[in-house]
Design a protein that fits this description.
alpha+beta; Heat Shock Protein 90; five-stranded antiparallel beta sheet
Length: 143
C-alpha cells in the first residue's frame, strides 16, 4: 500500500477537538491501527491540542492548529503545528504517580500519556515554522 496523507487546519478551540479526532480516526484506520492504538493516538493528539490552546496560545480562538498525518500499513505519523508561544514538552518532568491521589496535581498527565502511549514523540521549534510536535504510533506498539 502507498502512503496516504491527511492534512487539515483547525481554529484553536476546544469545540474543534472532535473534528481533530475524526481526522485522526480516519488516518489511523488507513494505517490499519487496532482499536487500542487508535484510542491512544486520538488521546495523545487531543491532549497535545488542548495544551496548544491553553499554553501556546493562552486561550481559545487565538490561532490555528494544523494536523498532518502520514498513514502506512502498521504506522501512523502525526505532525501537529502551531504558531503560538514555544513550548517544549521534553522539558516537562514526569508526574509523581507514587504520591497519594489527594497530593497529586489535578493536571499535567497529558504529556505523560503522550510519551507513554506513542512510540515516538519529537518537538521542534523554528521562528518561521513555529512549533511542530511529531508523534508516531505503530500498530500494537507502546501500551
Amino acid at each position: 500500500m502507498k502512503k496516504r496523507f491527511f492534512k487539515q487546519t483547525y481554529r484553536a478551540c476546544f469545540d474543534c477537538l472532535s473534528d481533530v479526532s475524526q481526522l485522526i480516526h480516519q488516518a489511523a484506520n488507513a494505517a490499519g491501527l487496532d482499536e487500542q492504538s487508535l484510542y491512544q493516538a486520538e488521546t495523545a493528539v487531543d491532549e497535545a491540542c488542548a495544551n496548544i490552546i491553553e499554553h501556546a496560545y493562552g486561550g481559545e480562538n487565538r490561532g490555528d492548529i494544523t494536523i498532518e498525518c502520514t498513514a502506512e500499513i502498521g504506522e501512523l505519523t502525526i505532525k501537529i503545528m502551531d504558531h503560538g508561544k514555544a513550548f517544549n514538552p521534553n522539558e516537562v518532568s514526569y508526574p509523581k504517580l507514587d504520591l497519594a491521589l489527594k497530593e497529586r496535581p489535578d493536571r499535567g498527565l497529558g504529556i505523560f500519556f503522550m510519551r507513554r502511549w506513542m512510540d515516538s514523540v519529537r518537538f521542534e521549534f523554528t521562528e518561521n515554522q513555529g512549533n511542530t510536535l511529531t508523534m508516531i504510533k505503530k500498530a500494537g506498539g507502546t501500551s
